[in-house]
Amino acid sequence: MTRFTRTEETGEPYSINPKTCTKPSNLLTLAVTHFIMRLLQSIYRHHKSVGGALGRRFFVTSAGAEEYARRNYANNASEYNTVVTSLTSQRRFFLLRDVYDDMMLDGVQPTRDLFHSLIVGTMKGSRLQDTFFFRDQMKANGFLPDVAVYNYLISVCGKCKNSDQAIRIFEEMKKYEVKPNGQTYVCLLNACAAAGQLDPVYAIVRDMTAAGAGLDKFCYAGLITAHTNKIPRADDTATKIIELVEQSKGWSSVETSGNNAENEMMGVSKEELYNLPTAEYVHRRGGFLSRLLTVYHVAFHACAELKDVQAMETLLEMLKKDRKSPDVYIVMQNIRCYLHSGDIDNGHKVFEDYICSEKFPPAELYATLVEGAMFGYTPKGMQLAQDTLVNMNSRNIFLSPRMGSDLLLVAAGEKSGGYTTANYIWDLMQARKITPSLPAVEAYYTGLKDREVPADDPRLVVVSRAYDNLLRGRPGAVRQHQKSKVKTRTITTTCNNSKIADGKPFSRKNCNTGTEQPALSNVTTIAASQSLRRHGMGEKGNPKSCERSERKQRKKKENFFVKETGKTDEEEEEASRVENNLKSNVEEIGEADMIGKEKEVNLMEEGKQEELNEKNSKHSKSKKKQRLLEEAAKADQRGICYLSRIPPHMDPVKLRQILSQYGEIQRIYLAPEDPSTRVLRKRENRKRDGGFQDQGFSEGWVEFTKKGVAKRVANMLNGEQIGGKKRSSFYYDLWNIKYLSKFKWDDLTAEIAYKNAVREQRLALEISAAKRERDFYLSKVDKSRALSSIEERLKKVFGGPQ
């Protein structure tokens, strides 16, 4: 009779025939084989259910091609670029890394424009680590960062108050011979100002003036920010701020260089690039923010941070002397300054004066008054905050999710009182079905628990449920929960699969390995060392204090050998002697087999790894070549239309919205208007436009996915009225559009690069001529001083003229 048993790892059967086991060597081999077989069978039977459960857990996650196509949200670089832009506009910056990982898994080659969009998104979200990750990936894909990317990197360093890293990026630009522009210096200045470092700020100002560049309003704003953020603060900080505001009046309002075209296309304003406090309000309309008062905005914000009412009133008098009226942002800073300094009456008076001026009050103005009134948690202030919220709700002015979360976070810090303000803010947000942010809900939940609210209170139950949902729904929470579950199961499996034989570790490989279960192949690396120690294992799987498992294993082996030996005393002695011999032989054979198997497995793994690397390299080369051919074929199918005139108030977003209804659009580029022409147009249309003008564009290019669509759009729209809503500012304008035959987007970028190079070369020549003129003038001055000193010495030696 032959007994077949299937091995654990290979699944191939092996046989044991008793007829061939007549010699002592065969008997020894039979005993050793039988012992190992019994040991593996006991382990397999004990953990079969756990291994099967884990196997089913990972096996069902494999989806078919149809399911993958249904869940996939992008197929090429252009679609991924659209996804990144959408996430950035939704302020969901934490998902950008996941989008990039999905793109890599799909085998999509990222483009320069896509990397620009990713870096801009991480810059807006102040995610420093993600920004530098995309910078490194951009270099790894063969795209060297240009001036715009370096400006974004310096800007995100300023947002995170990491001025040392910003200076290192500036040095890296010099290393790679990337010529910085004016925006680079201003970004670096504001990055150092955010950290409160005055010496680097003034060094940058000296370099700019030495190069012949004047200081604009953003430079003065950076100087004010540097004095405000300096630690420790000087006693004359307010005086310095007022002096800088006076000096900024000599700066001409006519900007020598407009905003970068790429920044306009990416939706990055100068205020956001330079980290000014008005960055989030720059797109507001209705007189909320006047961009001509940038220096005043930063100065009033600094006075509110310093709680200096006297300096703020001085700035108001200076503003009146300049015959300029304060906008909504300045009113908000006045209210903040009064309330944070403890003057509730004057702060409320400023708010009431603005309400009586028959101007529509924005929600931010109410939120500023409420937040400032809660400063210090005085009874008068808390009552004013609650009355303001009631008045705001009665006028149908509602809080946004961000404002509501900020106010709830502040109101939840009240330690004494009835907690009515926090409860009212929570009720307002619940009435509009808005869930606050996690920090706000956590603070509110903690405040309710500290007040000993009953556990069955309806409010506490709702807040507790919302808090639990936010904890489970935060970014990475589900993934972390699944990892913890797998970690717990893995620790149990690893500890139970490690058996002790004669005081030495006998580790068995995991049962569930293979291509259909990739997560279990590295299951031992997931287990943490501390958890392994609790289960009697060390950091490398060595036994620590598993005495109970040792005793059980030894007892099993003793029972096994007792069953195989005789029944009399002499036979027992003989059996014990045979047992000891068998133990030593088992150890020697087991060690030799394990060493041989390890060498064999290592050699096989090295050979397979080399073959896999060769296959991957060939596959990647062929895939890259095929991708390049596909991109070239797609580029040949695209068509470009030229717009010789761009109507006022038209920007790339609105143009894409209008033209996308005729066909899919790949890219849009609008050339910024000449600054001198823009100034003349402002003067002519000042009365009609109310003194405010958007960024103007002179001409533009639109790239359609198909040539036929571009030709049809040009023939159909040329000379026709733009139309749309009658309230639109370009409703009566006409299209001036033409299809450019045999014209590609590369031709446009080459022309733009050539124009930029010519402009930079002309600028360099002008700067060099100015330096030569300055050096010549300084040399003449030195010569004149030398001659005058010689004459004075001669007069002293020989005396004056007789």
Task: Describe the secondary structure blueprint for this structure.
Elements: E1 3-6, E2 13-16, H1 24-46, H2 48-59, H3 65-71, H4 77-89, H5 96-105, H6 112-124, H7 128-140, H8 147-159, H9 163-175, H10 182-194, H11 198-210, H12 217-229, H13 237-248, H14 261-266, H15 270-273, H16 294-306, H17 309-321, H18 328-340, H19 344-356, H20 363-373, H21 379-394, H22 401-411, H23 420-431, H24 438-450, H25 458-473, H26 477-496, E3 498-501, E4 504-507, H27 523-526, H28 529-534, H29 547-564, H30 569-637, E5 639-643, H31 652-659, E6 665-672, H32 675-684, H33 686-689, E7 697-704, H34 707-717, E8 737-740, H35 745-798
Antiparallel strand pairs: 1-2, 3-4, 5-7, 5-8, 6-7
Helix pairs in contact: 4-6, 6-7, 6-8, 7-8, 8-9, 8-10, 9-10, 10-11, 10-12, 11-12, 12-13, 12-16, 13-16, 16-17, 16-18, 18-19, 18-20, 19-20, 20-21, 20-22, 21-23, 22-23, 22-24, 24-25
Biased composition (Basic and acidic residues): 536-550, 558-568
GO molecular function: nucleic acid binding
Keywords: Repeat
Structural features:
64% helix; RBD_domain_sf; 5% strand; RRM domain-containing protein; single chain; globular; TPR-like_helical_dom_sf; nucleic acid binding; 4-stranded antiparallel β-sheet; disordered N terminus; mainly alpha; ABT1/ESF2_RRM; two-stranded antiparallel sheet; 802 residues
